[in-house]
Every structure is written in structure tokens, then in C-alpha cells.
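Page 37, continued from 36.
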């Protein structure tokens, strides 16, 4: 079907120009097109004014108007309800370029998209809405994105340098995706058919929104299972799906947190993400509070709204607002706000109906996800309920034989919960012998079940642990009242992973006998993160102390000696060195060092050519990392390193006044992976040395000038 009609004109965002030109060249598209600049999406007032003028001129020419633009302003959504105008709209222009299915799949992978038209000003586009109240620019939330995807539409050469800068600044990998015009053509054809029928888009879709809402309800139940461990991820998913279904400019999802008789509201999902700063403000907290005063989904700020609600909405995106509280069992679990809806009554009414339809699903889904994050309390409460239920079932079995099937079903449910719990569970008898365990416990210990059931709990988590359990013998009467032991132990026999578990013990009664239900949660990542943070803080303190010494005017050799000690201690390795480039630039002298054989410091030299690590560092633009010196192909190991059995190393250049002063190096006899924090630490020490060298040179130069001046004065006096 060729899109060519004399009475059909097109208004499009400039981001689609290259794709529309390709469609025109192929003969699939032959409409007059008037473009507006894509950068106007960050200037709402200018975008509204420009589109209003362009649509007025288009209507004056007669015929129908096809609007090819993403949903970046409520004004675009409003055009769908006007006769003679239809919008080829998606959530944004990226969805229109990729197609809805492909776009949603990539969004779930936390992809950050970059179109060619945005590449030059990518920082302004990315950080829009992230400016702090103090006027500074806030950092992106860690984990918000997994990678950057550049959409190569063919409109310009791929900006490799820009992508490299973006990847380095954000710490994300960058990929280039070629984008053809087919998804955009399919969307235009659908809108063109609607224009031929001269029906507003919203009327055609009005019969389908209930099915879409019902499908979303099913998706939410599925997502609740997949994302139950991450309430924020679930909140973002809900916000994204509701924004696409309702056409709201901004969707915000709040969690209601109860502390005693007080409650607070925390933002767990915003779409688009760049509006988070607005929603997380004090106004957002007040908005969530007002929503909880409502009995159900409703338009906020409409007729009969309080002055407080009307004033509050002034600080949010322009348009109408529909909100809904989320309650389970009469208790507030959260709330949802659809902001910036197009100013048409059917659209607002539909948004209210959608929230009314989904609230019964969203409230328990949201509440369950909230409870999942507090799994320990849930397991304790559920276990207590199940134990009580089992006692009641035993009594009923004696009285009613027909209840045996129900008891069997209850036992199966308990076993499923026990076996598939994410934490490791060990059931120990009164002597500390393991009598049962779940699948997570087997995975954690790396043992087969028969082998594990022949072991004591001390054989898994180290000696003396069961001695702490023995003090709980008198607590079985109040079984599962609380977790009475908390400890962090390494898991023995877990292999090279050095697994660390947080252990809790619960006294329980089974058949009148006392047991201990021991839960073990893997906290290895948290412990390693804490250790890494401790090391980084220590390294920063070392750099600060060295910098103070350099600024205090200490002589250069003393600063170098302290620097190599700081490097060896801060990186926890055997060798550190400062090499000075000698005149002629053919050799480097070992000026200062730690760990080297006696008599080498101040005497030993290494070659300054690129066949050595030090020489290679001098001509490199960044740090040089060696994982295994024996297999290194960029250069060979000098005798200084080979004689000391060095395996891994890290080196950076030390800047001088007219070129590099030398090299700062760190080495170890073990194979080691150096992190970016290790590199930053070594570069910081090298920077302090460079400043100390510059200070020494300046003092020498000043001393020389003073001597010259004194000599001139003496000559004149004579």
C-alpha cells in the first residue's frame, strides 16, 4: 500500500526525517511533510506553540493531517480526538522507530536509547529533570540502565567518539543497532487507514482498552512472581505499562510505609525516569497523602476538588490527573498517580475505569511484593501458622477420618515452601545433627543430601556454633517467637567461592521433641562490598596523608619513599617502585622502592624502551595492567621483575614539567585482577608525586633566579 493522498499532509518530528526520506525513495510514502525540531521535546512551551501553529496552517490548507511524533507532550495526545487529525503516536519516538514489541523487550533490559539527533547534546537530554535544588546535577541512580544502544537510522555517521565518551562517563557498554524504516511504516499505515475512515483514534481503540487492561492484569501477576524480590523494579514495570495504556504524561507509583501509627510514602516507580525529581519532592509526598484520603480511583483536581489538591497539581506536568489508592484488608499499601492526561473527558473517564479495573489486582500484587522483601518475618509467621494448623489437623484426624486428604495437602504445601525457599534451611535435632535440609542448603554447601544428613551443623558452619544453640533448650515452649541467634560464618567445603552466610536459629517443637530450624542467607556480596568500601576509604586516607606531606614541603626523596610504602600497603602487595627517567631517555633508575632485594634502590635500572613494562607505560596514554608477566605479549619482563618472581603488576606514568618524570609501579608474585579502584588509587599517588616534583622544580628555579639576581647586584656594586 503506497501512502500517497492529495488531501493528506504530514507533520513530523525531525528525528524521523531520515526514515521518511528512505520510505519516499522506496515509493512507500509520498506525502508532503512539515518537520518540527526534535530538541523541542525538552522545551514544553515552545513545542506546544510550534505544533499549534503548524496544525492551524495544515487545517487551513484543507484535508487531513497525519501527526508523526512520540507522546512527549499532552498536546499531541489531544489531537487524536479532533476530526481530521490522527497521531502515529507511541510512548516516544524510540518505540515508533523500533516497534512496540522490540521496544518493550529492550526497555525490560534497562536499555538507555540514543538517537542520532540527540548525540551532540546527550548530556542535556539524559540529565534533564535530574538537577538538584542546589543547582548542581545529580548522579543517575545506580543500576538504572544496563547498557546504551545507539539507533543508527542512517541520518549521519555513527559518532564513535561521542559513544566512547558516553560509555566512559556512565560506566556502561555501548552498542550500535541499525534501524530500518519498516516499524515506522507499519505504524503510519495503521494511522493512515484511520485517517481514511475519518475516525478519531481513541474511538477506534475504545472497544479494546478493557481487553488491554485485562491483559495487563495477567502480566502484572506474572511480573509479581518474577520481580517479587525487587519492589522498585515492580513499581517501574507498573508505571511503564500504565503510561502506555492510558497515555498519561507521567505515571508515579508510591509505597505506603507504616511505622507505628505514622505512615510515609516512598516513590518506587516513575515513568519517564527523568521526571523522578519532580515526583520525589515534598509535593509528591503530599500528593500521595491526598490520594489515601480517597475511597477509590478518581480525577484529582476536577470539580469539587479541595484548594490543596488544585494548588498541589500546579507543580506537576500540565494536564489532568487521575489517581487511585491501593488498599489490602483496609490497610494502605500504596498509591498510583496518572499525571498530564490529555484534556478530553473520554480519556480521563477511561483512565478512571482502567484504574478501577486494575486496583483489585494491583493492590495485592503490590502488597505481596512489599511483604516478599521482608521474607524472614513472613517465613516466621507462616511457619507458626502452619505448626498451629498441623496441631489442629491432628485433633481433627482423630475425630474425622475424612480430613486426612486435607492434612496431606497441607503437608505438601509446607514441603514446597521449605524446599523452594531461597534461603538455606537446616533442621537439627537436640544434639546438633542435621536431620533435614532444603535445596538451597544443598547448593550452598555443595554436598549431596545423604552426605549432609550424616553431618553436624558445626561441620558446615565451623566449631562452637551449636554451643550457642544449647542455651536455647528452655525456649522450645515459645517456639518461633523470634530468631534468637544471628551470626556470620564462612560455609566450610563451599569451594573457592568463600561463601559467607548469615545464620539464624529458631527453636521448634516437632512431635513433642525439640529441634532447631537454622536458616542461612548468602551475604557474601554484601560482605565483599563492605570490605571493598573499607579498602577504598583507607586508600583515600593514604592519598590525603601523602598529599599533606608533599604540600608541607618535604623533600622529594622522602615523599617518594612514603609513596611506595603507601602503594604497597594500600594495594596489599609485596613490591612498589618509583622509576625516574634518566637523561637521554634510555634508562629508568629505581629511585624508591619497597620489597626489592637490598642494594637495588638507587642503583638498579631498567630499559626505557617499549620492550619493558615501564617503558611501555611511558608511551601509553593510560595505566598498564599485567595479569601474567610470563604470558604477556606486549612487552617482556625485565630482570628486575623476573628475579623477584613477579606475576601481576600495575603501572602508571608520573607527569613531569616537560614530559614524563618516570613510572609508578606496583607488583605481586600472585596472579591478581586489578580493579578500577586500584587504578584510581595508583593514579592518585602518581598525581601527588607529580605535584611534589613540580613544587621541587619551581623551588629550584626560584633559587636559581635568586642567585642570579644576587650576582647581578654584586656585579653592579663592584
Amino acid at each position: 500500500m503506497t501512502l500517497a493522498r492529495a488531501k493528506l499532509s504530514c507533520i513530523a518530528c525531525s528525528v524521523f526525517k531520515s526514515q521518511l526520506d528512505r520510505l519516499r525513495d522506496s515509493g512507500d510514502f509520498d506525502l508532503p511533510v512539515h518537520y518540527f525540531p526534535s530538541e523541542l521535546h525538552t522545551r514544553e512551551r515552545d513545542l506546544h506553540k510550534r505544533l499549534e501553529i503548524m496544525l492551524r496552517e495544515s487545517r487551513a490548507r484543507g484535508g487531513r493531517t497525519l501527526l508523526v511524533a512520540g507522546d512527549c507532550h499532552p498536546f499531541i495526545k489531544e489531537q487524536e480526538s479532533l476530526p481530521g487529525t490522527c497521531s502515529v503516536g507511541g510512548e516516544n519516538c524510540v518505540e515508533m522507530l523500533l516497534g512496540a514489541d522490540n521496544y518493550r523487550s529492550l526497555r525490560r533490559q534497562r536499555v538507555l536509547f540514543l538517537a542520532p539527533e540527540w548525540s551532540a547534546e546527550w548530556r542535556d537530554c539524559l540529565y534533564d529533570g535530574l538537577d538538584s535544588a542546589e543547582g548542581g546535577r545529580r548522579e543517575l541512580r545506580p543500576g538504572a540502565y544496563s547498557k546504551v544502544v545507539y539507533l543508527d537510522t542512517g541520518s549521519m555517521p555513527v559518532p564513535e567518539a561521542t559513544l566512547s565518551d558516553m560509555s566512559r562517563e556512565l560506566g556502561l557498554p555501548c552498542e550500535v543497532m541499525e534501524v530500518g524504516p519498516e516499524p515506522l511504516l507499519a505504524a503510519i499505515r495503521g494511522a493512515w487507514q484511520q485517517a481514511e475512515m475519518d475516525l478519531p483514534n481513541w474511538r477506534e481503540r475504545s472497544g479494546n482498552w478493557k481487553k488491554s487492561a485485562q491483559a495487563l492484569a495477567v502480566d502484572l501477576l506474572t511480573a509479581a512472581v518474577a520481580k517479587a524480590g525487587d519492589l522498585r523494579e515492580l513499581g517501574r514495570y507498573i508505571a511503564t505499562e500504565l503510561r502506555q495504556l492510558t497515555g498519561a504524561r507521567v505515571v508515579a507509583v508510591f509505597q505506603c510505609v507504616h511505622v507505628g501509627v505514622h505512615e510515609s510514602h516512598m516513590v518506587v516507580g516513575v515513568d519517564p525516569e527523568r521526571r523522578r525529581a519532580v515526583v520525589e519532592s515534598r509535593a509528591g509526598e503530599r500528593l500521595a497523602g491526598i490520594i489515601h484520603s480517597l475511597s477509590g480511583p478518581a480525577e484529582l483536581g476536577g470539580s469539587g476538588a479541595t484548594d490543596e489538591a488544585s494548588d498541589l497539581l500546579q507543580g506537576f506536568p500540565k494536564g489532568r490527573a487521575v489517581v487511585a489508592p491501593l488498599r489490602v484488608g483496609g490497610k494502605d499499601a500504596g498509591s498510583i498517580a496518572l499525571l498530564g492526561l490529555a484534556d478530553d473527558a473520554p480519556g480521563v473517564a477511561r483512565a478512571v475505569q482502567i484504574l478501577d479495573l486494575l486496583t483489585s489486582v494491583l493492590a495485592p500484587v503490590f502488597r505481596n511484593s512489599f511483604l516478599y522483601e521482608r521474607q524472614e518475618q513472613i517465613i516466621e509467621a507462616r511457619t507458626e501458622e502452619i505448626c498451629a494448623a498441623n496441631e489442629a489437623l491432628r485433633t481433627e484426624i482423630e475425630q474425622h477420618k475424612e480430613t486426612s486428604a486435607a492434612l496431606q495437602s497441607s503437608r505438601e504445601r509446607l514441603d514446597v515452601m521449605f524446599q523452594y525457599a531461597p534461603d538455606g534451611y537446616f533442621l537439627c535435632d537436640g544434639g546438633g545433627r542435621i536431620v533435614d535440609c532444603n535445596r538451597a542448603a544443598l547448593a550452598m554447601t555443595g554436598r549431596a543430601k545423604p552426605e549432609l544428613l550424616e553431618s553436624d551443623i558445626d561441620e558446615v558452619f565451623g566449631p562452637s556454633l551449636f554451643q550457642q544453640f544449647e542455651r536455647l533448650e528452655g525456649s522450645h515452649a515459645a517456639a518461633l517467637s523470634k530468631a534468637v541467634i544471628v551470626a556470620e560464618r564462612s560455609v566450610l567445603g563451599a569451594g573457592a567461592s568463600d561463601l559467607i552466610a548469615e545464620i539464624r536459629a529458631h527453636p521448634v517443637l516437632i512431635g513433642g521433641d525439640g529441634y532447631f530450624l537454622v536458616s542461612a542467607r548468602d551475604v557474601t556480596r554484601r560482605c565483599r562490598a563492605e570490605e571493598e568500601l573499607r579498602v577504598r576509604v583507607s586508600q583515600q586516607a593514604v592519598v590525603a596523608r601523602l598529599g599533606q606531606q608533599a604540600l608541607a614541603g618535604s623533600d622529594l626523596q622522602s615523599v617518594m619513599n612514603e609513596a611506595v610504602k603507601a602503594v604497597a600497603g594500600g594495594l596489599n602487595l609485596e613490591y612498589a617502585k618509583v622509576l625516574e627517567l634518566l637523561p637521554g631517555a634510555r634508562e629508568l633508575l629505581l629511585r624508591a622502592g619497597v620489597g626489592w632485594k637490598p642494594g637495588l634502590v638507587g642503583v638498579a635500572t631498567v630499559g626505557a624502551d617499549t620492550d619493558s613494562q615501564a617503558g611501555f607505560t611511558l608511551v601509553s596514554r593510560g595505566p598498564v595492567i599485567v595479569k601474567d608477566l610470563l604470558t604477556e605479549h606486549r612487552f617482556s619482563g625485565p630482570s628486575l621483575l623476573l628475579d623477584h618472581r613477579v606475576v601481576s603488576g600495575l603501572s602508571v606514568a608520573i607527569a613531569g614539567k616537560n614530559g614524563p618524570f618516570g613510572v609508578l609501579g606496583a607488583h605481586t608474585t600472585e596472579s591478581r585482577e586489578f580493579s578500577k579502584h586500584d587504578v584510581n588509587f595508583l593514579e592518585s599517588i602518581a598525581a601527588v608525586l607529580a605535584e611534589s616534583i613540580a613544587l621541587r622544580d619551581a623551588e629550584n628555579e626560584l633559587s636559581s633566579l635568586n642567585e642570579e639576581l644576587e650576582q647581578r647586584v654584586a656585579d653592579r656594586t663592584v
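The radius of gyration is 34 Å. Flag for discussion at group meeting. Residues 1-6, 129-136, 197-207, 475-481 have pLDDT under 50 and may be disordered.
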